Amino acid sequence: MQKVAKLIDTTLCIGCKACEVACQQWNDQEFTMGVFNNTYQTMPSLAHNFWNLIQFNELEINGAQSWLMAKYQCMHCADAGCIKACPAPGAIVQNANGIVDFNQDNCIGCGYCITGCPFDVPRLSPTTKKVYKCSLCSDRVAVGLEPSCIKACPTSCLSFGTRDALHHNASKRAEELRADGHAQAGVYDGPGVGGTNVIYVLKHADRPQDYGLPKDPHIPWTVSLWKGPVKWLGNAVFFGGLLTALVHYIKVGPKEAHRDE
Amino acid sequence: MITRRDLIRAGAAVTALGFDLTPAIAAARELKIARTTQTNSVCPYCAVGCSVVIHTLGDKSRNVQPAVVHIEGDPDSPINRGTLCSKGISLKEFIVNDRRLTTPLHRAPGAAEWKPIPWDDAINKIARHIKDTRDRSFVEKDDQGRTVNRLPGIAMIGGCTDTNEINYLLSKFRFGLGILSYENQSRL
Amino acid sequence: MTNGWTDVANADVILVMGGNPAENHPVGFRFVMEARRKRKAKLIVVDPRFNRTAAVADSYTPMRAGTDIAFLGGIIHYAIENKLYHDEYVRLHTNAAFLIKDGFDFAEGHFSGWDDTKKNYDRSSWQYELDAQGHAKVDATLENPRCVFQLMKRHYARYTPEAVANICGCTAEEYKKAAALICASGRPDRSGTVLYALGWTQHSHAVQLIHTAAMMQLLLGNIGRPGGGVNAQRGHSNIQGSTDMGSWNNLPGYLKIPRANHQTLDDYLKANTPKALRPNSMNYWGNTPKFMTSLLKTYYGKHATKENGYGYGNIPKPGETENYGWGFFFDKMQRGGIEGFITFGMNPVAGGPNSPKMLDALSKLKWMVVVENFETETASFWNAKKLGDKYYPTYKDPSEIQTEAFLLPAACFAEKDGAFVNSSRWLQWKRAAAPPPGDAKPDQEIMARIFLRVRELYEKEGGKAVQPLRDMSWDYANPFNPSLEEVAREVNGRDLTTGKQVNGFGELKDDGSTICGCWIYAGSWTENGNMMARRGQEDPTGLGLFPNWSWSWPANRRILYNRAAEDAEGKGWDPTRTPIKWDGTRWTGDVPDYKGDAKPTDYGAFIMLPEGVAKLYAADLLEGPFPEHYEPVESPVQNPFHKNVSSNPMAPVFTGPNDRLGAPDKYPYVALTYRLTEHFHYWTKHVASGAELQSNFFVEVPEELAKEKGIKGGDMVKVSSARGHVEGPALVTKRIRPLKVEGKTIYQVGIPIHWGFIGRTRGPLVNNLTPSAYDPNSGTPEYKGFLVNLEKA
User: Fold this and answer.
1) Are A24 and B90 within 8 A, CB to CB?
2) pLDDT for position C477
3) H or E stretch at C183
4) What is the CATH class of B4-95?
5) Complex ipTM value
6) Residues paired with residue B40 on neighbouring β-strands, in sequence order
7) Is the minimum CB–CB distance between A58 and chain C shorter than 8 Å?
8) Which CATH architecture has domain A1-261?
9) pLDDT of res. A228
10) Which of A176, B152, C120, C730 has the most CB atoms in a 10 Å sphere around its CB?
């Protein structure tokens, strides 16, 4: 089965937030009050009821005023850290089309997926005690429709298609940008996690942190270990105590470091 | 009405795609717009003129009170081709909104609050005011004896968010009464 | 728009100035992005703020709010000096060769004919020199010093890059870079578009500013061309349609309101039907009698006869020089001269200039009717002291306000059918999806019921001037709730002899045998049905014309002045982008802005104008035939070109208690107000998504000014003008750069609109700050470039 993907050409993003609202509307999320923090970005980060965020970054690049805007959401990794970390059967699944989907009916709210995610995406709801994130509109994709954020995007910064086709488009676009004199333009698709089904084109691919993206995303080794040789040794109850401690320790470690690089 | 609905209906029957891990999800989440009625409209905000598809509850049969459940861009429009901005994509929140006015309100001179008023009473009181003001201030001839038929005692504004047809009716309304002080949002 | 949204994708050069489409027209902006991707078009942004459009632009030039004429006048100078204009186009399609009367002059800030006591111009010296036939004399060599081209060259000789930079506040180097990019569209094989919005219309010299843009585009040969034009993006869904249907000084279809000195229809038609100024001018407005007679016949039906001038006497008539525009009637209202006020979906307390003045004016009314979807600041103005927090402490208590107010719940867009006209002039029909909530009613029903009830009262009781009211036709199948389809058919018009809908305005007659409610809409609902509801997606020319999608006025023409895209022989300036083609017998492609079977040499390309060509020089504007840089009414500097005539001498002046103006000693900073992409005007403060995306009012403060004042991001600041104040957190940013003007450092403060004292999210009304300063031609207020002070709150 062909993998589906989302391409984010950040050179076309105008920070209009249509994708944010499209996501909220399609998923019937309640709107919450934004906060003012000396920026046009009023949602400080993703939330259990806010899965799609445009990050704004005002900075000077080579002496020129720049205002970078980029969408941030689940990357739908091929080698998904959340799945590796999840102890609850069926809570996180990867569809054959590549979508990494959470099924809250099976979620036990342990939060390990949060630790396992190199992109700091999943969020625990304080009321339902379940974890939520972008589903790439798996319900829409299942019936042949595009995800709602992609449909809404006015400037075609976002596009939807098969992973192969979008990879081709992304490389071509990066080439085009380099030919136009943007020497650092390139594609970002998380090779450290086996590639992601969300692909970025960045004008400054040498500095993904300026777009709010981790420079070199990797699944924490503790999580890889748990899903590898350790998991088969016993069930989650047995290792529960040990793992919780481990997870608690690493929660403030690698994850934060990735975001601040 | 759009026939794409049939397409979506057919699509909704498709079973879930395969999983390479636990086959925990038995079926894809049900598409919430699979059986809604779709109506073509145009966004009321800025003047780009994006076409929207309004999804309403039910199939328009006699016993259904349609309610707006979702709005998306109309992919057929050469302008927006399905896309919308953050305001357009949340139009449902504008239409279905607990702040919408649902009954005529009246504020008596000197009063500190609104009170509901039946439509007929409101129309009667307004018509009475218009007539009295018109009779008091209408100028049939100016000081040079020229016919001018104008009503300086009433000013009227509006129309920019309403259709051409309503704007045209407003022109008949104001010229019938003699109102000259008339402006719309294009002056602001 | 002369062109349209879909056409922007044809441009090679896109100047965004006086607008911010990435934020305020994001979906329209997709065509800008398409032009950049597909044509490698250059996007040039000129704006006081580095905004979200600038963030994706090829070039950004900062400027001081209110100095756009200087900037564009400088482009005219730059194009002429460097011979970058499209010479053949200018000779063929503009009035560059026309001779102006001896006596026309400009000196010390005034054009000839200025009367300092009347504060007005005698415009006789501005006119063309005419020959015995009444045609304008021309000099095809463009060398006569009295020809428009030479006069224009002389007028803008002062607008050197250095002079412009000194006024606008950017550097001369930055200016020259932007000028070179813009003028690159002067080549015949290149086209350039201009996208603007309220950043150009909200000035005390707005119309002249847009005139400057038109001149620039004519010089560069960009009018009528795919990817060209002067394109107003427009801020409301049907602001174009409501303008088409007339304001205080226009009848539907831009027919001028009759004035008191024209007592008969003949007088009116004689005064308002232009005569051709050149032998080859088609002078289409020569058909004014047909349009006017058909409108009157529609309005007055069987009461309209040849003998009574088709009911012409019923139309209200202002005196020759009277102004019933926004600024004037609110001023009169504040002075107690207006008893009643009706608003259909407008909120002047929030959206009008000088909110304290609006509040005071409304409190003088005897009665007020507000028809709305939501409660607004206007509806509940009488409660402003309580609801308005700290902003109106001295406002009257409700008990002291005797205005009787009615707030009527209206159906919203989704609950009504009918047509909106977008900025591309496309009339797009929409259908009703759901019934209105509760007892809300469609506007047409509310209006009809009031109108018919008033008429009934007059029938019963008699009263003043019954005839104009009684004669107005209202014979709809359901007069209490007219079907909008029926109204749309009436607007299109029909032939009363055959009973058939007319196919276009060419079929209208001046003998009372046709009706038409708005001549430019003739063709929108023909015998073939509702053309506005068409959904064809074909684009045979590949130019984005989409002739079968909806219907465009006039005559379904998608690019206005499209005959100017070709040379004298009818050959396209750019063969790859020719909107209409002459095949030897007729024109194909877009609906020609020309006679369909007339030879290319038969007429001038600008068929609507008596000149037959476009006007670089326009004697019909109030403050002069050439645009001149005037400072905003409140400015931190005196006009560097002429200190004694600093701001627009024709801008109306009001002297009421709220009409105070501020000086730079007390109010040193330039302020401008604007929208954010997350909100729509004053509506989405009622909507939860808007509340999430931008909950808070804030003030954008340049980093350097913040430093001077010890303000950090998030600190509360107070912005005050001579009218009022607002308070909110500061957004400290590098995106508003300090500017150098006349050797002084000028700071600009950015103030987003969208909040008010009623809504899901609340905040101050920014129009507490804005002055009652208006453009003399259009009456638009000056929201860009007024003076404020800023301090830590």
Assistant:
1) yes
2) 98
3) helix C172-183
4) mainly beta
5) 0.97
6) B53
7) yes
8) 2-Layer Sandwich (3.30)
9) 58
10) C730
